[in-house]
Specification:
The structure holds two protein chains of two kinds. By secondary structure, chain A is an alpha+beta fold. Helices cover about 50% and strands about 15% of the residues of chain A. Chain A contains eleven helices and nine strands. In chain A, a hairpin with a 2-residue loop joins strand 3 (about 165-175) and strand 4. The chains are: A alpha+beta, B alpha/beta. Chains A and B meet through helix 1 of A and helix 2 and helix 5 of B. Chain A: It comes from Scopulibacillus darangshiensis.
């Protein structure tokens, strides 16, 4: 056993911490109010080689490990949840499927701009009637004269407004009433492809959440990503990695809420002493510190398993489920410790809570995580 | 062009500092590259990018100090030298002797170091090294322009600017305003481990015993007294003024 980060991981942590404190945090509150996407932050992250963090150097990536990815997501999210989710989705939903399943040519064409930050990464899976239940997928692709002709729509797609391509899952055949689902790469400048961002969200206001409309979009037959008919299976593999990203976001936001609550409790005086001297407040803070430690431990374990080529589905689900739930609890208690001030935007903890709620929903709800874990333990 | 950068690893003064038995506790302390030295590294890397240079970062301290050198390597330095020093902190005399002993066997055109370290704040080590090497130095620089064999340097003199022309090789200490230190890039971090980091023991430097014996002793260290809350005077302006004079005369006893 070794609980120390490696030299590289420590340096990445330091760099990401400084970057997050100095560049990401200062505008976070305003961006939340203005619903302003932090494009310039991602340009800078691109220059620093962070956008292609875990991908091979031959495609412009930096070849770092999953623990480093978790550290980067955690630090960005500690400063700004919207920046954290944009980055996490960019890497784990946008870049990872191309890296895992793409052909050499697809990687050269589409993974490279993702690594440099020229394009953000996005993936089109969710539809109004299909999320974790892929059976509801309605988007359909038909092979006509060597081209896929795709029709359908997607919802809740992160980053699509800033993406050069969006792979989408679509029905590519029907056999005995069963749908064959494949992933097809769709360049976003194709005729018939449109992106709308109509949502009014509870939180993560500075992230790009879109609807995608695909109307008679033609792409060459070899734009298939991975194997035909394995679109959903591939996506489940992708999601295992994505859950580490969500877990890291949760740890980052929980850390931010905990730090704010601890500082406030020490500073706020009532009944002649700082409220951190009251057991009712102390117990909340002690629980926060403990849960954070446990969630981070699970996060690093899931990332470590992935880095060592071991099976990590169960641990990724546990990490995502536990971290997102303790993140909500921590945010709730952080607001409580702040009292009336906590309800005010100025103190930031209410933003953390609004941002945190998505983590119990996105990339598989808490209920779906429990289904995954139950299946993994043999239920 | 060969550039040497002298740097120090310090504790982060923005973190909570705990003093135990007159010593700063290293328990749970965050160690960072002295911020003034970051300007020195950045300036060296900028020169390297503009006209090409081989940059060597040098420091002394216990093994943990290597991480400050790795940061310099990640920012763009080419190699690093660590002088192992495990005892209590070297004073300016010892530190400059050790560094000069390493530097004098090397080729260099320019030596850069921070104006001072944020922990001890003496601002002496780098300029002592210049003295021991018999080269000129210019301190607290805010602009550096290299010409052919000379340099034009702007230095901060208590808020004013002094422009100095100086012959290479020389040593300069860097001041805030010289540049904006970069974040180490991720590829830089990944490459840093593969760059050479040479370690010297004090014995290998074959110095006289007195050169490595600290010439000063820290007798005590303590934290500054907690700042008292200010007093806000109220009432008519006239009354406030007389009350203030009263306080300055009788309570503060400064008038």
């Amino acid at each position: 056993m070794n609980y120390d980060l490696t030299d590289e991981q420590q340096m990445i942590y330091k760099m990401m911490k400084e970057f997050s404190d100095e560049v990401v945090a200062p505008g976070a509150e305003q961006r939340d109010k203005d619903k302003a996407f932090p494009k310039e932050i991602f340009d800078q992250l691109g220059k620093l080689g962070i956008m292609g963090l875990p991908f091979p150097e031959e495609y412009g990536g930096s070849g770092a490990d999953t623990i480093s990815f978790a550290i980067a997501v955690e630090e960005l999210s500690r400063a700004c949840g919207s920046t954290g989710i944009t980055y996490s989705a960019h890497v784990s939903l946008g870049g990872a499927p191309l890296n895992l399943f793409g052909t050499e040519g697809q990687k050269k064409d589409y993974l490279v701009p993702i690594c440099t930050g020229e394009s953000l990464g996005a993936f089109g899976l969710t539809e109004p009637n299909a999320g974790s239940d892929a059976g509801g997928t309605e988007t359909e692709a038909k092979l006509v004269n060597g081209e896929w002709v795709i029709n359908g729509s997607k919802c809740f797609i992160t980053n699509a407004s800033y993406a050069k391509i969006v792979p989408v899952t679509a029905i590519t055949a029907r056999k005995d009433g069963k749908k064959e689902i494949s992933a097809i790469i769709v360049p976003t400048d194709k005729m018939g492809f449109s992106v709308k961002a109509p949502y009014e969200k509870m939180g993560l206001n500075a992230s790009d959440t879109t609807e995608i409309y695909v109307e008679d979009v033609h792409v060459p037959e070899d734009f298939m990503l991975g194997k035909r008919g394995e679109g959903f299976k591939q996506f489940l593999i992708t999601l295992d990695g994505g859950r580490i990203g969500i877990g890291a976001m949760a740890v980052g936001i929980a850390q931010a809420a905990y730090e704010k609550a601890l500082a406030y409790a020490k500073e706020r005086t009532q009944f002649g002493r700082s409220i951190s001297k009251f057991q009712a407040i102390q117990f909340k803070l002690a629980d926060m510190a403990m849960k954070l430690e446990l969630a981070r431990g699970m996060l690093y374990k899931a990332a470590w398993l992935k880095d060592h080529g071991r099976k990590f589905s169960k641990e990724a689900s546990m990490c995502k489920l536990y971290a997102s739930e303790i993140c909500m609890e921590t945010c709730r208690d952080a607001i409580q410790i702040h009292g009336g001030n906590g309800y005010m935007k100025e103190y930031q903890v209410e933003r953390y809570m609004r941002d945190a709620k998505l983590l119990e929903i996105g990339e598989g709800t808490s209920e779906v995580q429990r289904m995954v874990i139950a299946r993994e333990i043999g239920c | 062009m060969n550039i040497l950068v002298l740097l120090k690893q310090t504790f982060d003064t923005e973190e909570n500092i705990v003093i135990e038995n007159g010593q700063i506790s290293e328990e749970n302390v965050e160690f960072i590259m002295n911020p003034y030295d970051e300007y020195a590294v950045e300036e060296a890397v900028k020169i390297k990018e503009e006209i090409g240079a081989e940059i060597t970062a040098i420091t002394l301290g216990p093994s943990r100090t290597a991480s400050a050198l790795r940061t310099a390597l990640a920012m763009g330095a080419d190699q690093a030298v660590l002088i192992e020093w495990d005892e209590q902190e070297a004073d300016e005399w010892t530190a400059s002797n050790l560094i000069a002993a390493v530097v004098k066997n090397r080729d260099f055109d320019l030596i850069l170091g921070g104006n001072m370290a944020i922990d001890s704040g003496s601002g002496q080590v780098a300029i002592r090294v210049a003295e021991k090497l018999g080269i000129p130095h210019v301190s607290t620089i805010t602009k550096l322009t290299l010409n052919d064999g000379t340099a034009t340097v702007e230095r901060d003199v208590e808020g004013d600017v002094e422009i100095v022309e100086i012959q290479l090789p020389f040593l300069a200490t860097t001041q805030q305003g010289l540049n904006e230190p970069r974040y180490p890039s991720l590829p830089g971090i990944m490459k840093a481990k593969k760059k050479p980091l040479k370690t010297f023991s004090v014995e290998e430097l074959s110095l006289e015993n007195e050169d490595v014996t600290t010439a000063t002793v820290i007798i005590d260290q303590y934290l500054p007294a907690k700042k008292q809350a200010g007093q806000i005077l109220e009432g008519e302006l006239q009354d406030q003024v007389s009350e203030l004079v009263q306080i300055l005369q009788n309570a503060a006893k400064v008038v």
